[in-house]
Each structure stands twice: as C-alpha cells, then as structure tokens.
Amino acid sequence: MTTIIDIPVRPLVEYVYRSGSIESGFRVAQTMQEGTRIHKQVQEGYGEEGEKEVHLRIEIPLRDLLFRIEGRCDGLWTDEAGLLTVDEIKSTSITAEDIGDGREVHWAQAQMYGHILAEQRELEQVRIQLTYVHKSSGKETKLERIRTRQELQRFAMDTLEQYAPYAEMLAEHRRRRNASIEGLPFPFAGYRSGQRQFAGAVYKTIGEQVNLFAEAPTGTGKTISTLFPAIKSIGNERAERLMYITAKTVTRANAEDALQRMQQNGLHLHGVTITAKDKVCFCTAEGGSGREDCAYTNGYYDRINEAILDMLTHETLMNRDVIERYAQKHTVCPFELSLDASYASDAVICDYNYVFDPRVSLKRMTDDQRKSTVLLVDEAHNLVDRGRNMFSAQLNKAAFLDLKRDYQHRSEPLSKIAGAINAYFIRLRKQIGEEQMISRSEAPEDIFKLLEEFTIRAETTLLEQGDSGETEQLLETYFAVQAFLRIGRLYDMESHITYVEQDGSEVILRMFCIDPSLQLRQTAKGYRSVIHFSATLSPIRYYRDMLGAAEDDYNISIPSPFSKEQLEVRIVPLSTRYRDRERTRQELAELLAQLVNERQGNYLAFFPSYQYMRDVLEAFEALEPDTDILVQQSSMAEEERDRFLEAFQPHNERTLTGFAVMGGIFSEGVDLAGDRLTGVIIVGVGLPQIGPERELIREHFSRGGHSGYNYAYVYPGMNKVLQAGGRLIRTEQDHGLLMLVDDRFLQNPYAQLLPPEWKD
Predict the structure, then answer these.
(1) Which among 260, 265, 270, 273 has a CA at the least distance from the CA of 234?
(2) 591 vs 588: CA distance, rounded Å
(3) Burial degree of 168 (CB within 10 A; 0-12, 13-18, 19+)
(4) How many CB atoms lie within 10 A of CB 591?
(5) Got the DSSP string for 63-95?
C-alpha cells in the first residue's frame, strides 16, 4: 500500500540540510520583517520576461511512499541562450565575505525547485542562483551553479532517501494512531450531566468547520469533553491535529492528565507540551550566560534530527520531563526540541501565544497544516485581555536617550539614530503640554522609518559585539522596536488607538488594541475549527463580540451538574466601593472573623486589589481570630504557590483562612475538592481600576452602540467574581458556603450576571 507524504519544499530541505547552531533571536526577527521588501527589490530587476512567486508541485515515488512536494519559487527567467535560471532570494545581516559559497540548505531549496522545473519542462540544464541581499546596505551578492537534469534527479532522490526514515516513522505512527482512535472508548464510566451534549456539539462543530462558544460550568468536565471529540475527529480524518491552548500552567496539566487517561485506554497519539523558554532552557539553568556559550544550542541542527526521530519513535506523550530527558541525551535545547516536535505531533498543549501572538506564534506551520488543525481554547474568557496585550505595543523615551549616551563613542550611527528617536519623543512631550495624555485613531507612521533605521543599526552593532551582558539594554530595546513595527503593520483604526502619555520626564508611545476581535478572527480563520470554552462566558453576546465570532458560529450553554443544595449562598449588602472602603473596613473584618470563628474549616477570601486585601487583613488580625492565615503575594515562585495550596488539607486541626486577589493565580484553575475548601468569600464586584486604557475601551464601545461601561468594567469584573466562586464546588460530593460581600450583587446588571445556582 502506497503512503502519500504531502510536504512543502522548505521543511523537506531544512530537515535534511539544515546544520550548525541556533542563531541569535534578533537575526530571525529581522529576517521576517525585511523579507517581503527585499524580495520585491530583487524581483523588480527580472524584467518583463521574468516570473515571480511561481508555484511548483511534483510527485516522486520512493519505495512504498509517494512524495507530493510543492513550493513557491522566488523567480525564474530564461537568458538569450535559452538557459532557465531559478533564483532563490535570502536577506542577510552578514557581509559578502562571510557568505562565502552560500549555505547548503539554501542551495538545496533552489535545487529542488530546479529539479521540479527540469522535469516539468524537460530541460537538460538549469542555472541555480542564490541572491543574498544585505539588509542595511541593500547590496546584492549572487552565487550560481549550473546543474544537469540528471544531477538534479540524483539530488532530489538523495534528499528523499535521507528524509524517508522520518516519513516512514510518521506514516506508521499515523496508522497506529487512527486504529487506536477507532476503538477508543470514553475514558470514564459514564457521561456527567450535560457532558454528552457538550462533546457532541464539539464533534459537530469540527465536522462543519465552524467555531463554537461553550459555557460549561465547573464540574462539567470541560477538558475531556473537548479533547475526546477532537481526537475522534482526527481518527475519522475530519482533522489531522489539535492544539489545546491555555492561559495558565495548571490547566495545561489537566490536558496532560486527560491524554494520559486516554492513553491508558489504548490511545496511541503523539502529544507534546511546550513549556516557556525561561523555565525549561538549560542555557541559564546550568550557569551558562546565554546562547553564545550554550552546548545545547551550539551545533543544535547537527543533532536535532536524531533527537526527534528517537523521541517520536519511543514516546507518545511528551511532557516537560520527557523532553528534558531526550534533550540531555542528545545535547539539544529542550525548548527548541519541544517546538520542533510540535510540528510533527498530533496534539500540542501550549500557551495562547503560540497561536495568536504575532511575536512568538508557530510560524513554520503551513497553511495546510492550520486548515486541518482544531484549536481548543481553554478558559477562553482570558483571551480578551490577552488578545489586547498581544496586539498592542509601546515604546519609552528613556530607552533611546540611554542608548544615545551609551553608544556615543562605541557606535556613532547607532547613537545618532537613537538620538533622532529621542528627539521625536521630545516633540511628543511638547504636544502633550499640560495634559497627561493625548490620543489619535491613526498609527504613528511618522516614527516607523526612524525605527526601521534603528533596527538596522542595532543589528549591525549586535553582530559586532555579540549577544552579551554589555548589549542587554540594546537587545531589549531592539525587541521592543521589532514588536512595535510588527503591530504597526497590523494596525487597524477600527480596533486600535494610539496614545502618548507623560510620566515626569518619561514619555510613553503606545499602540493600544481596544478591540482584539478583528485580529483574533483573522487568526482563527486559518484553522479548521476553534472551540472556545470556559465556565464563565456570560453574557455570551459580549464574548462573541470580543472573540471575533462569525454569524454561523455556534453557542452552547451547559447547565451546572451540581444541585443547589450543595451551595449555601449569602449576600452581604456592605458597600466595597472605593469611596466607602475605609468606612466599611472594620465591619468587613468583623464579618470575616465571626465566620471563621463560628464554623471551622478552610476559607479563601478574594479581594479586588492587593492594597484593599492588606488593609482588611490588618483589621482582621487585630481582632485575633481563631485561624491560621495565608496571604497571596504580588509575585510568588512556583514553589510558594504550591505551598499555599498544599496548606488547604481536608482535616486541618485549625481553621485556615487564605487572603487572595480576584483574577490572580488562586482564583482560576485551582481545584480544592471535598473538604479542602469550606467557604469562599468574594469582596466586591471585581471592577477593573479606572484608568486611561479602560476609559478608551468604554468610549470606543459606547460609540459603537454598546454599553461601554459594561464592556470596559462590569463584564470583566463579574467574570473574576464567577471564576473565584467556582473554586468552591468541584465534585458531586462537595458542599460549601459562598459569601458575596457588596450591595451591588442585589442590583442589575450584577444580579443578572450571577449564575442560576447562585440565586435564590
């Protein structure tokens, strides 16, 4: 039986011919930014007879494999002697002397295009040309080789022979995967209330290639209700892969556990978890000073193919521990290993960033791969503010003033351009005058040319001086400028606003994404289906608006599987408005003290801010309540978070009261089932603090005919309330007290937003 392997030219030749070390990140970022402009610059010289961006495709059989290879050639033309030239254009930061004979992987890409053309047009010879363009000077370096049709045939077959073991491993895995999915049972004894309906909606949505917005309360089993039908869709070839994306590490662990459970029931599937670079990289963890002297990145591409083949042959579920073990075995960077493994895996568990953030998304994923991928967006309510952050960018004046001074004698061109940008900020400060902030709907295009010049000068300096501690500030500013230019290209006047803010001598220029729906919708269009799910997607119209729903996308709301009798709800009409907090602080402290003294157990009290929490805590401790106290800090290491949660044990000898903030690390994704949590106290309605950006959001949606105040404040605030309250009842056996402290819980719109099981 012939196995079909669909593969683009570039990943094929990169697998076989890529070699050497991982390059510094700034080179990659610059290449992506400059690529389109440089291609156009070279292609304009082809003349009328030249062909640009030519799509090529060929089928090549090899043993039991049929390779269907396709790609896009940068340029073609035929000279007076009738010889066809295939041109591959590459932007570069290095000099012509350093380019030498060119990189083997670049020659391989051009030669594969040459092979396809020689076969299709029956050519006896083809000229292969590499055109390197220096990004700062624009100088072109052309290298060429003439290859016969037979030479190109041998090259193509040799390339496929080297790729074949990897392709055969993936093909065999795919057969085992689909067979295992066909007989895979639901991994629990039965479905919970509403769970079958939820899973069915996910399966139907994937089949129809639309999107779903699902509100499924705590206890529904959201993780398995989305993963199981998505995996069944892969087995039925409705999809080829899935990405389970989350906002928090703890929910990633839930997805890993669900895959592990299905594996125990016979599932054979490659799943990889991508852990943040700063947590997993060996470069810094083992005392190294970065990639320049890191044994795991130096020569990475000489070892990665063997590492990937080894890991995918012997492992299925590849979490952090598994990836680190193979990274040590093959001396490769664990973070980069997880990224490379993700392109070959059936399931990827990762942060939102790897899909939506234009700075760090998985850019080597092809359009065809996206079209066959299902996105499972866990805790989708978080994607609203995360989307705003991902599609916003800012620059600060101080960074450029510092660089102007620091490089005055080390790099005059860099100092000069930094000084020009600093002067631009001074002009902005004069425009602000006595105001604290000014805004406009247009992008700040008058600074883009300066910033593009800055990236060129900065890159030249970084190449000369290396990625060292002395260039840390330059590198940081370089990345900030790259991000600013990238968002500038995405800027849309319907969803962005530019504002300038003054803070003493500092001037901040920010492109702020008020409404992320356009960018989120455009990203989602590339995928087969996107399943947004959360315990708190209410009101659904708001989340459909903010997450970019199309008219034909589905909604589903699953009722709570728990009975009202499990939850005792008390509403205490005590004002926690900012203006009343000092007046009601003592009364609130006495209320909390009375509760924990009367009923032994474990309590979590959630506050709208750290300062308010500390103020009430001070009054609470003065009453000397009979309880142990834990307090959330503004920054806690992973070990500190674990100790905080581990203290909530079911049979503590003394009452335990935890003080935490709404929207923080303990108010979402935390599972304290059974007697580990007796009661939750929610202080206030969670409204975000009034500030310039929130006011811009309010004004924007008010102009659009919505309730701007609700969009900017009420809905995000009440989401925090609902998430915090969801920590209490986690299983059918749980019982507990939920105390809502604020008179606004008895008023609309706040009362309307409370879930049915919280209302009497």
Answers:
(1) 270
(2) 5
(3) middle
(4) 18
(5) TTEEEEEEEEEEEEEE-TT--EEEEEEEEESS-
- CA dihedral of residues 613, 614, 619, 623 (deg, nearest 10): 90
* Residue (of 10, 13, 32, 8) closest to 104 by Cα position: 13
For residue 234, give the H/E element and its range: helix 222-235
Cβ-based neighbour number of residue 119 at 10 Å: 15
Residues 223 and 234: their CA atoms lie apart, in Å, by 17
If DSSP codes are grouped into helix, strand and coil, which group holds residue 373? Answer: strand
Instruction: Please provide the DSSP assignment of 183-204 as one string.
Output: TPPPSSSSPPTTHHHHHHHHHH
- Residues 710-728, buried b or exposed e (16+ Cβ, 10 A)? bbbbbbbbbbbbbbbbbbb
Global pTM reads 0.91
Mind listing the pLDDT tens digit for each residue in 297-351? Answer: 999 999 999 999 999 999 999 999 999 999 999 999 999 999 999 999 999 999 9
Residue 604 vs residues 404, 478, 498, 655, 741: alpha-carbon distances, Å: 50, 43, 40, 11, 13
pLDDT score, position 24:
54
CA angle 719, 721, 723 (to 5 degrees): 70
The b/e string for 143-161 (b: 16+ C-beta within 10 A; e otherwise) is bebebebebbeebbeebbe
Looking up tokens 């589905």 gives 554
Distance CA 153, CA 144 (A): 18
Q: Are 327 and 222 in contact (CB under 8 A)?
A: no
563 or 642, higher pLDDT:
642
Contact (CB, 8 A) for 460 and 93: yes
Give every strand in the sheet of 393-396, ordered side by side: 393-396, 506-513, 496-503, 437-440
Structure tokens at 156: 């193509």
Residues of 514-537 as b/e, b for ≥16 C-beta within 10 angstroms?
bbbbbbbbebbeebbbbbbbbbbb
- Looking up tokens 């309330």 gives 721
> Given a cut of 90, is residue 444 above it in pLDDT?
yes
* Cα–Cα distance, 208 to 330 (Å, whole number): 43
Residues 6+ apart with CB under 8 A from 743: 573, 574, 575
Place of tokens 């032994």: 600
Which amino acid, 472? E
CB of 211 within 8 A of CB of 532?
yes
Structural contact between residues 166 and 305, judged by C-beta atoms closer than 8 angstroms = yes
Angle at CA of residue 425, ends 420 and 428, nearest 5°: 130
Q: Which helix (H) or strand (E) holds 140?
A: strand 140-148
Tokens of 339: 């990224």
Helices 397-406 & 472-490, crossing angle to 10 degrees? 140
Q: Tokens at residue 647, please?
A: 């203290």
Which residues contact residue 77 at a Cβ distance below 8 angstroms, ignoring those fewer than 6 apart? 46, 47, 49, 50, 51, 84, 85, 87
β partners of residue 501: 437, 508
Report the alpha-carbon distance of residue 214 to residue 296 in Å, rounded. 42
| Euclidean distance between CA atoms 216 and 535, whole angstroms | 5
Give the pLDDT score at 28: 42
**Cα(264)–Cα(557) distance, rounded to whole angstroms?**
31
Q: Show the tokens assigned to 756.
A: 């049915």
Write out the DSSP string of 736-749: EEEEEE-GGGGSTT
Decide: helix, strand or coil at residue 59: strand
Per-residue pLDDT at 32: 45
What is the C-alpha separation between 499 and 439, in angstroms, rounded? 4
Q: Residue 343 and residue 361: Cα distance in Å, rounded?
A: 12
